[in-house]
Design a protein that fits this description.
Elements (H helix, E strand, L loop, with lengths): L25 H16 L4 E3 L9 E4 L11 E11 L3 E8 L2 E11 L1 E7 L5 E7 H14 L10 H19 L2
Antiparallel strand pairs: 1-2, 2-3, 3-6, 4-5, 6-7
Bound molecules: ligand GNR and nickel (II) ion.
The site of nickel (II) ion (NI) has 5 residues, from helix 2.
């Protein structure tokens, strides 16, 4: 396993549309192991493959609390089946938009079909943090970031600040 660098906005690679995984094999499982290790190290509760520069439709997640046992989750080629009309607001952050947190409104529940770590098809109903996080991660597969759900003013401000921070970091 290895920790891989996480790409941050406004890097154009984050805007790619990720491609479906054709076969869930050991290479894909090794990639998911690296993603999980990278996510735990960050630390974060979810990670899409494109955040480490791999444009494949893969998500890893762990919503367990600090004092709970790890609960790694793997979602390959996820598809949203249906979404609730009820909406929920969460204060979201993103490892690719470091240090910024803003409220985002999304459907409160959704059904998802995906392949698991072993390549078996699964169907789940999600709500709460899982519903929010899985939608945030599935946005990444389409090249969408949580800041795209904010006003243009807020989004542009965050991008401008990120660029400035990256400029200062590069000059160190
Ligand atoms: O670590 C993360 N926390 C988080 C908090 C609220 C809503 C979504 C997230 S996902 C984020 C990790 C990340 O960037 N995943 O793409
Ligand atoms: Ni994110």
């Amino acid at each position: 396993m290895a920790i891989r660098p996480i790409i941050t906005a406004p890097d154009a690679r984050l805007r790619q549309i990720s491609k479906p995984v054709e076969t869930v094999n050991d290479d894909i499982r090794a990639l998911m192991d690296d993603m999980l290790e990278t996510m735990y190290d960050a630390p974060g509760i979810g990670l899409a493959a494109i955040q480490i520069g791999v444009p494949l439709r893969i998500i890893v997640m762990d919503l367990a609390g600090k004092d709970e046992d790890p609960e790694p989750r793997y979602y390959i080629n996820p598809v949203v089946l249906d979404t609730a009309e009820e909406m929920a607001v969460y204060e979201e952050g993103c490892l690719s938009v470091p240090e910024y947190f803003e409220e985002v409104e999304r459907p409160a529940k959704c059904g998802v079909r995906y392949l698991d770590y072993d390549g078996a098809e699964q169907l789940i109903e999600t709500e709460g943090l899982l519903a929010t996080c899985i939608q945030h991660e599935m946005d990444h597969l389409e090249g969408t970031l949580f800041i795209d759900h904010l006003s243009r003013l807020k989004r542009d401000l965050i991008i401008r600040k990120l660029k400035k921070e990256q400029r200062l970091a590069a000059a160190e």
